[in-house]
Sequence to fold (214 residues):
Amino acid sequence: MIDKATTTTRPLGRPRDERADRAILTATLELMGEQGVRDLRMDDVADRARVGKATIYRRYRSKDELVTAAVAALVSEIEVPDTGSTRGDLLALMRSAVDVYSGSVEGAAMPSLVDAMSRDAGLARAVREGFLAGRRAALGAVLERGVERGDLRADLNLELALDVLGGPLFYRLLITGGPIDRRLADGVVELILRGFAPIKPSRKPPAPEEEVAR
Fold:
């Protein structure tokens, strides 16, 4: 006789090893920074992560899929803050981004990823629909809340504001090599708050004395 309770609670298949998942994605990001996406090899990822190559292929069917997953994993760590103010929320997000991309594994991997995206339309589409879409969604939630609070203008151009938030960081990371620090984060936040502040109605000039007398 079969124990029905046992058959209904036993998990199907081998459970995923979360340690292996993290090791694979971390190894991929590290090797992207060291070798570039073009020279990234599944064998090297397996060696760095200390897993079998079959373990990788059970999760990712191709190198592009692995690279996209490694970058998309960064988004899962982004929490939408609610500090009680739009300034506080934006500062929390921008300072978190600065901490991630200043001298880290993620920051080192980005230049080679951008280069690979310019050569591979499929990879570019996957990254835009995964990593970039997720990050912009988190930032967009904070901006929309700022509009509801009255801290940002009601007719806010959301796409432009998102570009202004991310543009300076990636410009320094990929082009100028300038410092990615708290000063940059704070400056971008002030730019957003001032540039997209609600438009106050202009006061009417006082009526001339002669008009008042009439």
Summary: The chain has a mean pLDDT of 83. The chain has two domains: 16-70, 74-195. The longest helix spans residues 121-149.
